[in-house]
C-alpha cells in the first residue's frame, strides 16, 4: 500500500505539469489579447489605431509579462505555482487566491447539497428497482428517470423560474443571488434558512440529472451482481434477502459507483456556468466564464490547475477504495 501510494503521488506531478502545459498553449492560441481587451474596455470599445494606442498595448504587455517568450512565461508561472502563488488577475489586479476564496464557499455549498441529495435518493431507488425488476414500479421509475435525464438543465431552470419564481404563476422562491438584502444582520438560523431558500431552485437544477443517472447505474450494477453464483449460494444457505443484498451483493455493486467519486472533488470546485449565470450566483463557474471572456490567463490557469489536481486526487482515492471493498484487487 505504501509503495503504491508513493508511486501514484509521484505520477501526479508530471501529469499535472502536462495538463497545465496543454492548457497554457490552448489559451495562448485563443484569439484576443489581454492587453488589447483591457485597452478596449478602458476606451469603451473604441480604440484608435494610433502610435499612442500601440505604445499603451506594449506597456500593458510588459506589465503583465506578456512580452516574454511563451516558454519563459510558462516557466515563470510554474515557479510561482510551486510557491502557491497564482499571481494577480489581469482584469482587476486582485490576487487570484482572493478571488477563488471569495467564490469557492458558495460553489461548495451548492454542490455538497446537490451531491448529498443525489446519493441519498438515487441509491435507494436503484436498489429497489434491482430487487424488483420488471415490475410496474420498476418500469415507472425507469421511465421517470430517463425522462429527467433527458431534460436540459437550462430549460428546467427557466421553467422553474416561470413556475415558482414570480414568472407567470407562483412567487415562492427567489431567483437572484444567494441571500436577501440585509440578511447579514439576521440571526444565524434565519440566515441559514434564507440561504437554503435562495438555493432551492439552483440545487434542483443540479440534482435531477445526476439522480437519474446514478439510480440507473446502481440498478444495472446490482442486477448484474445478484445473478452471480456466490449470491445464489448465499440464498441457498437460507439467509434473508436483506442480508444477501446488503452484505454480499451491494458491496461489489459499489465499485462502478465509486468511480464517480473521483469526479466529485473537481465537481464541487468547478461549479456550473449555466446555472450560476441564470440565477446570478457568484460562484466558481461564473468566475471561470468571466475569466475566459476577458482573457484573464492567471485565473484560467489557477482554476484548471486546481481542478486537475482534485481530479487526480479523486482517482487515487477511488483506486484505494477499490482495494478496500474488493480484496481481490491487488494494488501492485
UniProtKB/TrEMBL annotation:
<dbReference type="GO" id="GO:0055085">
    <property type="term" value="P:transmembrane transport"/>
</dbReference>
<dbReference type="InterPro" id="IPR035906">
    <property type="entry name" value="MetI-like_sf"/>
</dbReference>
<dbReference type="Pfam" id="PF00528">
    <property type="entry name" value="BPD_transp_1"/>
</dbReference>
<feature type="transmembrane region" description="Helical">
    <location>
        <begin position="196"/>
        <end position="214"/>
    </location>
</feature>
<feature type="transmembrane region" description="Helical">
    <location>
        <begin position="254"/>
        <end position="279"/>
    </location>
</feature>
<dbReference type="InterPro" id="IPR045621">
    <property type="entry name" value="BPD_transp_1_N"/>
</dbReference>
<dbReference type="GO" id="GO:0005886">
    <property type="term" value="C:plasma membrane"/>
</dbReference>
<keyword id="KW-0812">Transmembrane</keyword>
<keyword id="KW-1003">Cell membrane</keyword>
<feature type="transmembrane region" description="Helical">
    <location>
        <begin position="12"/>
        <end position="31"/>
    </location>
</feature>
<feature type="domain" description="ABC transmembrane type-1">
    <location>
        <begin position="104"/>
        <end position="318"/>
    </location>
</feature>
<protein>
    <submittedName>
        <fullName>Peptide/nickel transport system permease protein</fullName>
    </submittedName>
</protein>
<dbReference type="InterPro" id="IPR000515">
    <property type="entry name" value="MetI-like"/>
</dbReference>
<keyword id="KW-0813">Transport</keyword>
<feature type="transmembrane region" description="Helical">
    <location>
        <begin position="140"/>
        <end position="164"/>
    </location>
</feature>
<dbReference type="Pfam" id="PF19300">
    <property type="entry name" value="BPD_transp_1_N"/>
</dbReference>
<comment type="similarity">
    <text>Belongs to the binding-protein-dependent transport system permease family.</text>
</comment>
<feature type="transmembrane region" description="Helical">
    <location>
        <begin position="106"/>
        <end position="128"/>
    </location>
</feature>
<keyword id="KW-1133">Transmembrane helix</keyword>
<feature type="transmembrane region" description="Helical">
    <location>
        <begin position="299"/>
        <end position="325"/>
    </location>
</feature>
<keyword id="KW-0472">Membrane</keyword>
